[in-house]
Amino acid sequence: MIASLRGENLLTLEGVSDAALLEVLDTAESFVEVNRRSIKKVPALKGKVVASIFFEESTRTRLSFETAAKRLSADVLSLAVASSSVKKGESLRDTTATIDALGIDALVMRHQSSGAALQVSRYVPHVRVINAGDGLHQHPTQGLLDAFTIRQVLSERADTTGVESGLELFKGLRVLIVGDVRHSRVARSDIVAYSTLGCEVRVAAPGTLLPANIETWPVTVVSDFDEALEWADVVGLLRLQRERGSGSFVPSLEEFTQTFGLTFARAKRLRPTTIIMHPGPMNRGVEIDSKVADLASAVITRQVTNGVPVRMAVLYLALASVRDGGGS
Amino acid sequence: MSFKNERQTPPRDLAFLAKSQLLSADDVERALRRMAHEIVERNHALEDMTVIGMQTGGVGFATRMSELLSDITSTTTSLGLLDVSFYRDDLNVNPTPRTSMTAIDDDLTDRTVILVDDVLFTGRTIRAALNALSDWGRPRSVQLAVMVDRGHRELPIRPDYVGKNLPTALDETIRATLDGVWMGTKGVS
Questions:
Q1: Minimum mean pLDDT among A127-131, A320-324, B134-138, B168-172: which range?
Q2: Is the per-residue pLDDT at A328 higher than 70?
């Protein structure tokens, strides 16, 4: 178990303790305040260099990480893979070595292969590697920001602060994850985070979109989606990943929407307090009805907003010193 | 402004082992009253004054100080909290501190800021605070009030209002709260 993410790589949320998750959430809370100021910048990582390499396309994660690094006063090196030597066949190892040679402190990377971030972290042991999504494996910061968003919404309703509530609001919270679990690294990170924090997690998906080893996950698979919707305090939708061939795992998109899509009719049956989440980008009309995405209980843009303070916390802790020292 | 819901950092890892009490709660209250009068004497108009408590040791003193200032002048003094974790210069040397809440409502441009902290030691926290404050505008002046000045400055920083000057050895520790001031050492309890 990782007791704290200070000075650590963030490759997966598996094996990260609830105390370490709590530390990220609480640190992120301090950065929410920074993001509300007119000058949204603190010098915490002045002089540090954060490289971001995205071998796979991304809008929100990349922008969010780079915004986070800049608000911490770090310098950001951003490699656009499409126009880089990767296209000439440069290996992952050589690309990493090249970027490392420029002198970097942290590396934020997304790659289409599961385990790529772990591999890179072995090439550059002196650099803190932050996984921004690797294949079908993990997307740790998404799991963190989803947990952060849930705590934020629930603590506001309870008229307290996230920090004051600690892990209390997660205990026994009923979370339903719906859709393309098989191809989703978000689902993997979310489920690990939620179950570590004490939530009860169920998944609803067509059998073809469940991973082969689902019985080893800390979840219950439910067959009746509509019944599960009434049970849930939080509904986490997943994108049907057509670029990973999800389309061929379901008879048709229409049928998927009919059976596992959050249609407007279904959304009306949810309790009004049930939180609707989606990591984006949404396929409006497939896993989520367009009108549902705009409901007040849908916190999808809040998830994006929270991406910045959560990633600031992740970078800040990763680059924090762990050396013991005295003084005040 | 109420800080009921604002976070304060829990105590650091090492427990404080008190050896002797130097000031009682009454002494602290009297010192705060004197400092409040000194602040009023020096600053006449209090409408454009903001009292800012340094997280975490200065918060209690700042809250009491703003109450006293309000009593003396019959105006309401605005109160803020400042956590300087992100402005420290020792992130590479010392373990990163746990962060607490910052809450400053006003644009500080052209306001008089009274920074309040419990103990003034090396001056590095105040240096960080001065940097931080510049992100909220350009105050007309910044004045520093501390309950205890224990010496050993490492930067050219001096307090404007002092509750008590207490010369100390480097390995000693001071704890100052509204309940009193103690000298002691740090250790595992």
A1: A320-324
A2: no
* CB atoms A328 and B125 under 8 Å: yes
Residue A324, in any domain of the structure: no
Q: pLDDT value at position B94?
A: 59
Dump pLDDT digits (tens) for B29-57.
Answer: 999 999 999 999 999 778 899 999 999 89
The answer, yes or no, to whether residue A13 has pLDDT greater than 90, is: yes
Residue B80 C-alpha, separation from nearest chain A C-alpha, in angstroms: 13
Decide if A279 contacts A238 (C-beta within 8 A). yes
Tell how strand B180-187 and strand B173-177 pair up.
antiparallel
Do the Cβ atoms of B135 and A164 come within 8 Å? no
Regarding whether A273 and A150 lie in a shared domain, the answer is yes
Tally of domains in chain A: 2
Q: Which two tokens stand for residue A75?
A: 């310098």
Has residue B139 been placed in a domain? yes
Q: Is residue B10 part of a domain?
A: no
Catalytic, A137? Answer: no
Q: Are residues A190 and A210 in the same domain?
A: yes
In whole angstroms, give the CA distance from residue A30 to residue A20.
16
| Residue in A closest to B122 by C-alpha | A328
Within-domain flag for B137: yes
A171 is a catalytic site residue = no
**Which own/partner contact pairs does A291-296 have at CB distance under 8 Å and 24+ positions apart?**
A291/A264, A291/A267, A292/A262, A292/A263, A292/A264, A292/A267, A295/A267
| Residue A72 contacts B, CB cutoff 8 Å | yes
- Asked whether residue A148 falls in the same domain as residue A235, the answer is yes
Neighbours of A3 (CB within 10 A): 11
Is B128 an 8 Å CB contact of chain A? no
Supply the CATH number for residue B54's domain. Answer: 3.40.50.2020
CATH number of the domain residue A41 falls in: 3.40.50.1370
B120, closest residue in chain A (CA to CA): A328
The tokens of A117 are what? Answer: 């971030």
Contact B93 A29 (CB under 8 A): no
Residue B7 has pLDDT above 90, yes or no: no
Range of the domain at A36: 18-137+306-318
Residue B112's domain spans which residues?
A: 24-88+96-187
Does residue A300 sit in the same domain as residue A153?
yes
- Kindly state whether residue A67 falls inside one of the protein's structural domains: yes
What local confidence, expressed as pLDDT, does residue A86 receive?
A: 81
Contacts of B2 (CB under 8 A, 6+ apart): none
In a domain, B164, yes or no: yes
> Is A165 within 8 Å of chain B by CB?
no
Tally of domains in chain B: 1
Examine the pLDDT at B11 and tell me if it is beyond 70. Answer: no
Residue B126, token pair as written in the block: 């105040």
User: Which region among A291-300, A313-322, B131-140, B151-160 has the lowest average model confidence (pLDDT)?
Assistant: A313-322
CA distance A264 to A67: 34
Are A148 and A127 within one domain? no
A268 flagged as catalytic: no
Chain A residues within 8 A of B7 when measuring between CB atoms: 26, 29, 161, 163-164
